[in-house]
Amino acid sequence: THQWRGIIEEYRDRLPVSDTTPVVTLREGGTPLVPAQVLSERTGCEVHLKVEGANPTGSFKDRGMTMAISKAKEEGAKAVICASTGNTSASAAAYAVRAGMVSAVLVPQGKIALGKMGQALVHGAKILQVDGNFDDCLTLARSLSENYPVALVNSVNPVRIEGQKTAAFEIVDMLGDAPDIHVLPVGNAGNITAYWKGYQEYAADKIATRTPRMWGFQAAGSAPIVRGEVVKDPSTIATAIRIGNPASWQYALAARDESGGAIDEVTDREILRAYRLLAAQEGVFVEPASAASVAGLLKAAEQGKVDPGQRIVCTVTGNGLKDPDWAVAGAPQPVTVPVDAATAAERLGLA
Ligand code: F0G
Fold first, then answer.
1. pTM higher than 0.90 for the full model?
2. CA 341 to centroid of ligand 1, rounded, Å
3. Which of 73, 202, 213, 351 has its CA 20 to 30 A from that of 192?
4. What distance in Å separates the CA atoms of residue 45 and residue 4, rounded to the nearest whole number?
5. Closest to 260 in 3D by CA, of 180, 314, 185, 186
6. Helix and strand tally (H, E) in the chain?
7. Phi and psi, residue 260, nearest 5°
8. What are the transmembrane regions (predicted)?
9. Which residues face 39 on adjacent strands?
10. ipTM > 0.90?
């Protein structure tokens, strides 16, 4: 009769909430940590996948959103706003419904996956498609939140980071200590910031004996942190991380440097290869951006940068159903058969 209560109740003493904070939750968090057999074989390591697509709206954003919406409600906000490449808007829209609040979302015109757009629509968000990229959307969202009665729930809101750090807690709670390396995709750089904060807090309180090296991967066409300069016109098929000027840039550099980690880039081709491997060989369907972590791990292994025997966790950030175009594209069309067992058996290669 016990179910996971959501990250605020499960980690209440580590989050900036009080007894009077209204907890707005869809029971996010408590996501599976799945041993990755093929990736372990390929790297000679013990690789696990933190499957964040199992969250209520299908991405890790729910961890931050339960905090952001709960705090906004506590402060009396009636409306929230965010800029998004899709997942933040889906999450904000759902949690705003739970809170009885209005949500407004700004998305880059034509550059968000259909599933995510559908989520924002069905949850009743007020959506504006902005004639610009994510970075433009964020500038606009910040400006609106400063000048109008609407609370900003992007990860520049520090309580978002507080919520998202709980993923690191869950990993240590499950494994008994921090892994050697933690790998994740980097877009606006909030999540790498959050994991690093979570790992550091557990190490400081001696719940973990160490912190992992943080390895972040950007898409090659949208890799400002790797290049060391803003990318004016970011491009990648991984629309979730199509970001040219990450808000948490400096925190990502701190996570990299303080952890002895790295931030590198992976091409769209490498992302799609990892995307297909995860689905076809690990049984885990993620969206393209999520596969950037695994693509990065495979790239590093091929470059001889992964010593065998290590324990590695890759966060896969979002559910594959959000953006199934790449699953269908390039796959053979299913053949049509009559209602006839012999024909079906033959076509299935059973006969
Ligand atoms: N993976 C997915 C599936 C995402 O949606 C995002 C970010 C990231 C990775 C990168 O995380 O920004 O914390 O470095 N999506 C944001 C959004 C930008 O609007 O949904 P990050």
1. yes
2. 46
3. 73
4. 30
5. 180
6. 15, 10
7. 70, 35
8. none
9. none
10. yes
